[in-house]
Please model this.
Amino acid sequence: MAAWPPALRLLLALGTWAICSHRGTALDHRAPKLRLTGGSCRCAGKLEVNTERGWSAVCRDVEKRAAASICQQLGCGPLTVTSHFEVDSNKEPGVQAVRCAGTGMCRWQPANCSSHTAFVCSEPAPTTTKPPPPPPTTSPEPTGESPAARAARQGFAWLLGNLGSPSPACDLPVPSPGPPRLRLVDGNFSCSGFVELHVRGRWGAVASSPGNWMELAARICSALGCGSPINSPAAPQPSQLLVKWEAVVPCRSPQLFDCFNRTRAGRGRAPAFLTCSGSQPQAVRRLAGGPTPCEGDVEVFQQGRWQVLCDHRALRNERGRQLCRELRCGNLSSSTEVREPRSVGVSCDAKHLHLCPDSPQSPRSCSRTRVVCQDSKPRPAGVGAGTVASICLALLLFGILLLICGPPAYRWLMKKISKKKQRQWI
Model:
């Protein structure tokens, strides 16, 4: 095998040095694979982790030390910008996210969040290491440029041009502003949480208002399709949300989004926490054991069957009024306690029946509540399906009888009339 020309050996040495130095810090293959997507370069974008379920987005609460470590794992320079993106549940209903647990190295844990983190890491600084000197040669330099030397010179110029070209600026994708909208976040249920308002592409919490908040809260719950506001305890945990809006109370504008003003004094203010009636599964209820659907004992459907709802003296009349309205039976006539015979049922201390928990309860012996509504009158029996079928069958048989017996009967009748006329002439 012929020896390679010195120029070609120089090109190979320079190419090996350039590739190794330009690649930057190698990734730790023992750690989960990471990537930044949606940015203008490989060191900017939304952070994603390759887990067993595939590529997953990362929730926004990533510590600075962990973020710096992530930039290093990606082979990029120091962290320059951190941001976050809001997830539109209509466009991304199946987004599965993970959370970074830890300050130095992340321990990835499954999480449910609507705000994903994004990084801008600086590009790795180009190395200033000098290339290795070319190997000495004793062969005389040719007077003319050979094809191999020309290829080496062109390749060397290409490498220098690519290594010396400045890298493009790294930017994050700009989120779409979208229309104004409201949401409840960090609550125990889908219809409970801190109130956030989305305007001009950014979410911001609404400050808690000590004024006539319930009127505006009713409009918020209705706009979210969550029923009506209910009295609930304080927020389950302190919130780190940044307050950017304050409520206008009372608000007379027909447009709900006109009831919020931008605030500059958001620091130190607690965001408003709201719980709507649609937060918990609704219990199915009825009046059973009476002569009509508008009269009977109060029962709820739990654990796959109907059970008696134990009497609650303080809430007896209120529950009766609720059931009469829900069943469209008019106003309440009476709501009484029935002690004998004793019943086995479940209890509920909620003021509104639809907030009674659907979780399993231990039945106990108790008295029941008998409710009678104003429209509790025996309804007249309607025409049953069997009666309609009998009428149709009778009409069909009558028609067949006319077809069979009609012509002979007509001829016999005409003959009798003719004979009667003949007697009259005689």
Notes: The radius of gyration is 41 Å. The longest helix spans residues 385-425. The first strand starts at residue 34 and ends at 38.
